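[step 3/7] inverse_fold.run input=structure_tokens len=265
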């Protein structure tokens, strides 16, 4: 999308994982902070010459569009484009990675549902929507209180930051039957609007800041899941292995060990 070389993919992967750890560094680990600052500088050093080149020779990629877009005669500065591209990388990369890992964790943990998806690939969208509800990649979003507000018997004063645990909202049993169970066939999750701002889960948040990449994420996860199911039969966890989720702001298994039978190409 950004028109950057595919050969640099590993570089971006490293960068967005480090940046996500930096943003979620609530305990203030100095090494994580230092790595985050180093990565920010590296990304800027990588992108700035590309931005200058795209301003001179725009293509049909998103980066060129950002470089040439004009509103009321004003263009975005290099710094703004750098910052937005950094946001896109983290918001788009880390989240989709986590969604795919969690979806396979959920499906492999429920072999009957995995088999149903294997037999009818149109169920991938359902499995993805239920994964977003049951184990959303983004668990917490931050908001700033605009004016003093009473909530749940407490007072939030203006200017304070609030951590909204959207992961908890997604498993609220006043909203979903048997909320703590993964069930791609549940009737109280509307898959037809699960990837739009009208979604009845909170994984992409809502309102003005609803995730701009929701439909892209769906396409990515569908393509990825189809490729994996084409390549692997009889997917299972190794004996005695239970994957565990990691992370606070964003959460998923850090790695997923799978055993499978390779399918003939
Ligand atoms: C399963 C995958 C994804 C999940 C769970 C997810 C989740 C979210 C959430 C919860 C927000 C709201 C944050 C807030 O309001 O504080 C958000 C915003 C955003 N997302 Fe995603 N996202 C995903 C994929 C993507 C992709 C693929 C892209 C782009 C390539 C993307 C780009 C963005 C951007 C730019 C924002 C900020 C929108 C704004 O503030 O107006 N996301 N996402």
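[step 3/7] decode complete -> sequence:
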């Amino acid at each position: 999308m950004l028109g950057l070389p595919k050969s640099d993919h590993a570089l971006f992967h490293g960068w967005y994982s480090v940046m996500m750890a930096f943003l979620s560094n609530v305990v203030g680990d100095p090494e994580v902070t230092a790595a985050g600052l180093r990565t920010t500088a590296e990304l800027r050093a990588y992108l700035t010459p590309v931005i200058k080149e795209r301003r001179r020779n725009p293509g049909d990629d998103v980066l060129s569009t950002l470089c040439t877009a004009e509103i009321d005669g004003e263009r975005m500065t290099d710094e703004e484009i750098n910052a937005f591209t950094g946001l896109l990388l983290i918001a788009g990369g880390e989240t989709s990675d986590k969604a795919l890992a969690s979806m396979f964790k959920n499906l492999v943990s429920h072999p009957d549902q995995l088999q149903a998806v294997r037999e009818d690939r149109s169920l991938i969208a359902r499995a993805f929507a239920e994964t977003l509800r049951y184990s959303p990649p983004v668990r917490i979003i931050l908001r700033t209180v605009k004016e003093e507000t009473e909530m749940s018997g407490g007072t939030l004063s203006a200017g304070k930051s609030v951590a909204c645990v959207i992961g908890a909202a997604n498993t609220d049993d006043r909203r979903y039957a048997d909320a703590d169970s993964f069930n791609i066939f549940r009737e109280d999750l509307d898959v037809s609007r699960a990837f739009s701002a009208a979604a009845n889960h909170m994984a992409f948040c809502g309102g003005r800041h609803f995730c701009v990449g929701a439909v892209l994420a769906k396409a990515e996860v569908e393509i990825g899941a189809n490729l994996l199911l084409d390549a692997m039969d009889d997917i299972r966890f190794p004996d005695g292995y239970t994957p565990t989720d990691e992370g606070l702001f964003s959460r998923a298994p850090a790695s997923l060990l799978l055993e499978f039978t390779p399918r003939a190409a």
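[step 4/7] annotate
The chain has two domains: 1-76, 101-139+166-262.
Residues 137 and 159 are 27 Å apart (CA to CA).
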